[in-house]
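Run log, item B.
One chain of 68 residues. Sequence copied directly from the ordering sheet:
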Amino acid sequence: MRDVAVSTDSIRLGQFLKLAGAVDIGSDVRSLLEDGRVTVNGEAEDRRGRQLVRGDVVAVDGTEVRVG
């Protein structure tokens, strides 16, 4: 698992997926969420605007990234 540093106290899931390199463009986030390929802290997530805080673990297709 790798950590991705954020400069604020929280970040939206869609923004974090772009920052972490999980998607190239923001419109790709929607299809990942609709297909059920994203989990946050082990639970399926379908909200692009979900607020993440440091320590949250996001997984896309099994690859985990922690908000740092």
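Observations after the first pass:
- The helical segments are 13-19, 27-34.
- The chain has a mean pLDDT of 95.
Flagged for discussion on Thursday.
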